[in-house]
Amino acid sequence: MTNFHEAEHIQMLRETLLRFIEKEMPLDLVRKWDRDNHFPREVHAKLAALGLMGLTVPEEYGGGGRDVRATIMAIELLCGRSMAVGGPYIQSACYAGLNLAEVGSERQKAELLPRVVEEGMIFAYGISEPDVGADVASVRTTGRVEGDRLIVNGSKRFCSGATIASYIYTLVRTGPREDRHRNLTLVLIPSDADGITFEAQDALGLKGTGTYDVTFADVSVPLANVVGEEAGFNNAWTMLVGPGLDIEKMEVAAMALGIASAAVEEAWAYAQERVQFGKPISAFQSVRHMLAEARTKLHACRAVTYQAADALDRAEDASLETSMAKLFVCQTAQEIVLACQQVLGAYGYIKEFDMERHVRDILVMPILGGSSAIQKNNICNMLKLRK
Ligand SMILES: Cc1cc2nc3c(=O)[nH]c(=O)nc-3n(C[C@H](O)[C@H](O)[C@H](O)COP(=O)(O)OP(=O)(O)OC[C@H]3O[C@@H](n4cnc5c(N)ncnc54)[C@H](O)[C@@H]3O)c2cc1C
């Protein structure tokens, strides 16, 4: 199958990564990580040693220079095998690497980006709250300045990977609520700071990192931890809706693409092995057609994802394409996985088969990173559809 004019360095990286996956992420371990909700830190460290976290980091800080297409390909391959490795990869390369490179202060970049590249340092996103979902600007967690410290109070919800992260990239309100887009600040809160408590939430999928309720009770951090330092204070909204948001949409699309790819491969192989009525079920037209449709949809998802990634690499304004990609790929990938599950019949519904994990993981993709409804709103607004 075509990889849509992949540059030679990305092809080489793809081959290296496929060998890494075979060696370091065998399916018996992948199943165990999922079952035990376990983060394999040693595999994450080996990914860093391979230089994979540097795909988002400028050369002057030890990375290879920002390469969205390569990052997307890495997310696709890793998440196609295991969310317990793919999720934390995103939290390192993107949540930490991309964000710091984009909006960190010079000092923060110099101090933290080499740690992303070398150690695979992980950030968790502390954006959502019990009463804050899509309406991010309504955030209630507060940050109060006291001397050279910021005192944080409030709670975050669905903070994925909070306990494996070095820092929680936390959105706080640092002024009156009336000016809801202005008085927002992003702050790096060490996950072992005094006053933080974690309570695990029991999610259906995305096992490995876990997702948490996080409570901040008078958590005190230096003002130097404000993302972007002085320039970042009360300025988080522009940081959140900037180019980083476009890449975030693509991260979720790439996850969905990887999961759908794995589901298609599993269903394709299964259909040729499973015999009923004296024939492999791949001989029955209904199964053949399901598989043909799944492959075609997957091809379309890949084209849309790579096209938007290439636009970002050319530094074009790709807000529209990335919203379309997020919407189309996540919804279509879900259709693909559910169709592939049907190909496996009853075996697609039991834990002994990987399909069951793919189904659990794919269901959240249209919700994360701006839901399908929010992307539809964005697309209409960007194209100025009359209200
Ligand atoms: C497994 C998992 C991991 C997550 N990880 C993180 C994380 O690490 N950090 C983090 O901060 N958050 C995380 N989230 C939260 C996720 O980003 C939110 O679920 C998402 O922002 C949507 O918020 P909500 O679920 O509260 O939905 P709501 O905003 O309450 O929306 C509910 C429904 O209403 C629709 N809706 C809302 N507003 C509109 C509108 N204006 N127009 C049309 N429809 C609308 C939505 O599309 C949705 O269908 C995670 C969630 C899950 C399930």
Automatic annotation (TrEMBL):
Residue span, Acyl-CoA oxidase/dehydrogenase middle domain: 124-219
Pfam families, per the entry: Acyl-CoA_dh_1, Acyl-CoA_dh_M, Acyl-CoA_dh_N
GO-annotated molecular function: acyl-CoA dehydrogenase activity; flavin adenine dinucleotide binding
Keyword Flavoprotein applies: yes
Keyword Cell inner membrane recorded: no
Domain Acyl-CoA dehydrogenase/oxidase N-terminal positions: 8-118
Domain annotation Acyl-CoA dehydrogenase/oxidase C-terminal: ranges: 244-379
Necessary cofactors: FAD
Classification via SUPFAM superfamilies: Acyl-CoA dehydrogenase C-terminal domain-like, Acyl-CoA dehydrogenase NM domain-like
Keyword tags: FAD, Flavoprotein, Oxidoreductase
PANTHER family from the UniProt entry: ACYL-COA DEHYDROGENASE, ISOVALERYL-COA DEHYDROGENASE, MITOCHONDRIAL-RELATED
Family: Belongs to the acyl-CoA dehydrogenase family.
Protein name per the record: Acyl-CoA dehydrogenase domain protein
